[in-house]
């Protein structure tokens, strides 16, 4: 009797089969690997899209303030770039096991790098606040407010914490206008490269505390529709009675719009975009 070893020996004349992940790649076709890669990318895309809709561009801001632009960026780097590279470079009939594994790792790294860049770009552009200044609201992005705060600190100003000023999402802010005696300093700040008034977080305060001043700038929706007929369909589709709503001018990053607030709860209900040039064209025709 021979000694027993911890490993079983293969019968004479047979060699053990090494089943490594790289060798198993030869068993898949290009289309199969592409399909698996696309399914994984779709799952990641769905998670990021849900994050954008629910948190980064909540409510009406997704459709009006950059949400769709962000979706296109994520789709390009996640659904198009990675799977397309797999479809182009994965060729089990022409490459060795090691080459196939190298290709997949390289493709994954390229896609991951592009995906991180795309997600950070969209995250930086997410809507974090609407700030009321003078006679209208302005949408404020995370990137815009971060850059503005950096300039304010360099100039010796103390930026406000917007999270401490509002519980709404995005935050609802009132920008304290400069007093008459402050105008020379304010104009000098602009000439010296400081942010415009809607990004001066050192002048941010609670919107609720200044709501009477905001209400004084509410729009007459009937006059607005007369000047901008493209708003008529949106206004007619409202289910709430008009006397229970208030309408304010809103400057988005890409469009001009009307912000619709509930008169009692002061909750932002709708955002309707319109073409500012349409009113000019209408007046020209008259």
What's this entry about, in short?
The protein has helices at residues 21-24, 30-56, 61-64, 67-89, 97-124, 142-154, 183-191, 211-215, 221-227, 232-236, 276-285, and strands at residues 127-133, 136-141, 171-175, 204-206, 245-251, 256-262, 268-274. It is of the alpha/beta class.
Output the keywords.
286 residues; alpha/beta; 3 domains; 7-stranded mixed beta sheet; 7 strands; 15% strand; elongated; disordered N terminus; disordered C terminus
Structure commentary:
Helices cover 47% and strands 15% of the residues. A seven-stranded mixed β-sheet has the order 4-3-1-2-5-6-7. The longest helix has 28 residues, at 97-124. The chain has helices at residues 21-24, 30-56, 61-64, 67-89, 97-124, 142-154, 183-191, 211-215, 221-227, 232-236, 276-285, and strands at residues 127-133, 136-141, 171-175, 204-206, 245-251, 256-262, 268-274. The chain folds into three domains: 21-124, no CATH class; 127-214, no CATH class; 218-286, no CATH class. By secondary structure, the chain is an alpha/beta fold.
């Amino acid at each position: 009797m021979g000694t027993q070893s911890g490993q079983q020996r293969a019968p004479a004349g047979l060699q053990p089969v090494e089943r490594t992940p790289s060798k198993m790649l030869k068993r898949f076709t290009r289309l199969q690997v592409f399909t698996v890669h696309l399914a994984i990318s779709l799952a990641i895309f769905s998670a990021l899209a849900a994050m954008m809709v629910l948190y980064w561009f909540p409510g009406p801001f997704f459709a009006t303030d950059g949400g769709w632009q962000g979706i296109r960026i994520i789709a390009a780097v996640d659904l198009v770039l990675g799977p397309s590279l797999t479809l182009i470079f994965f060729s089990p009939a022409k490459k060795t096991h090691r080459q196939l594994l190298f290709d997949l790792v390289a493709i994954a790294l390229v896609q991951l790098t592009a995906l991180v860049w795309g997600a950070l770009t969209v995250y930086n552009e997410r809507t974090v606040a609407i700030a009321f200044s003078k006679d209208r609201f302005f949408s404020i992005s995370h990137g815009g407010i971060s850059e503005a705060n950096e300039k304010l600190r360099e100039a010796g100003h103390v930026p406000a914490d917007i999270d401490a000023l509002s519980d709404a999402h995005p935050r609802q802010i009132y920008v304290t206008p400069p007093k008459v005696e402050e105008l020379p300093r304010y104009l000098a700040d602009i000439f010296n490269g400081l942010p415009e008034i809607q990004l001066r977080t050192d002048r941010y305060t609670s919107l609720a505390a200044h709501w009477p001043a905001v209400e004084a700038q509410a729009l007459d929706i009937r006059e607005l529709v007369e000047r901008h007929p493209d708003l008529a369909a949106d206004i007619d589709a409202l289910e709430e009675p008009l006397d229970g709503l208030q309408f304010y001018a809103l400057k988005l990053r890409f469009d001009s719009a009307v912000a619709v607030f509930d008169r009692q709860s002061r909750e932002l209900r709708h955002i309707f975009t319109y073409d500012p040039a349409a009113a000019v064209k209408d007046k020209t025709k008259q």
